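Q: Can I borrow your eye for a moment on a structure tokenisation matter? Would you mind producing a protein record, from residues through to fold? Write it directly below this note and I will take it from there.
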Amino acid sequence: MLVRLSIRNFALIRELDIEFSKPFSVITGETGAGKSIILGALSLILGQRVDVQSFYDNTEKCSIEGFFNISGCALEAYFQENDLDYDELCIIRREVTPQGKSRAFINDTPVNLNQLKEITSRLVDVHSQHQTLLLQESSFQLSVVDSVAGNAALLLEFNNLFRELNEQKRQSEKLKAQQSQAQAELDYQNFLFDELEKAGLDAGEQESAEAEVEILNHAEEIKSKLYAAVEVLINREDNILKQINEIGNQLGVAAKYHPDITGFTMRLREVTVELKDIASSIDHLSEQTTYDPDRLEKLNNRLSFLYQLEQKHRVNSVEELIDIKNDIGLKIKSVNSLSDSIEALDAEINQKTLKINHLAENLSEKRIRVLPQMEASVLEIITQLGMKDARFKILQTSLESPAKNGNDQVTFLFSANLGVPMNEISKVASGGELSRLMLAVKSMISTSSLLPTIIFDEIDSGISGDIASRVGNILKKISEKMQVIVITHLPQIAGRSSEHFRVFKYTQDNKTYSSINLLNEDERITELALMLSGNAELKAARETAKELLRNN
């Protein structure tokens, strides 16, 4: 339950702390005193949007803190899963800077807004005029049935499975589209692959062939130059080797008289050996170098073929052609593997669909089972609220295929008067009737709800007198199962509460502030008398106020 609400720098509130200690609390006050401000501040820690224009002082940050006793709320697992410190007194804080930057904390651990909304949705149900309008919507009506049927766990399993199934169906459709497109291109891809495969491509072959063609094209010239080199080295009369040998002889004579010359003769012998080896290699290469027109034609044809393939695939090397061939091969394999993937995925989809249908049947059975008791419960309460001729029925219809919440659609049918056919609530219920219907629904689901706190704002719209007293009784009954906080302008409801807060405005230093007081018994009598007659000192009004409190 909400045990304390702390507000700093919000609307007309500079600083305010409200402590709730009883199961049924009411907040009253004159129009414009600030009752809605308190609810607005609370909405911030429930994850609602921030309006920085709501700051009392736009130079300071706004801070809202809610202190919740969460013992018995079965939230330990949630805290552990989200790496949050668990404490039976959970502190939820929202801070907003003047620039509009918002931060949220759970037990001083920063959390994002989704986490904030998720946990507070398990702690507080705020009933406002907007939510009364939700009663007209089929999705809300179905959620009411699920709440009474206790379908939370089953519905969560169904929702998760349904989401997974839809994702798998989208994936299957995507794969089938890819397969269809790839299949249309498969013949061409196979042709390209076969062409490149039959080409027998080898890395480096183009450069090797181009070099060999260059040699063959100049074979005669190369042979001629090699022959001339051998002639100069060893064959002609005055060849280089003879000259070097003569030099060696001359140096050999001189070496008898000068020891340093011996080194030159040794080096000349080494040069002689190297030149002879060079001459031999050149002669051998000369013999091997021959013009081979057949080989040249074969190489040119191969190169021409490679150049055509490269031009076709817009590349410049055999290595790139090999890469393209490998890529095409992978594409062909992927097309073939798509069928296996699709088959496996469709098998999973079929299994999941069977499970979905089974869960949907279970949901339907549980929903249909509780409809009679729901109809009776709502009728009992709205009869207490003055609609003795009203009729209420929940129409269940089955969908052709499961939707996100199962196979069912429910419609609340209502008629307030005899002789008027029942119809959808949105078509026949007035504002006051909607408020009473919603109160009946809230009272009914309070027996099955795990929420510790419910807040009613404008639940008394369109009612007064004896009906207001009955509303107060119903709210009192709800408070036996959960904490009830009501913002009201009706004394009949305020008189039934366990504790009574009064919101008021005051001025100080030419500034207007809103504040709140917890009323003692005498103050409650004064406030109730004021609400009853507009005159807090009127004796009859004060006696009626005392009577309201005595009957509490």
User: Anything to note?
Assistant: Residues 123 and 451 are 5 Å apart (CA to CA).
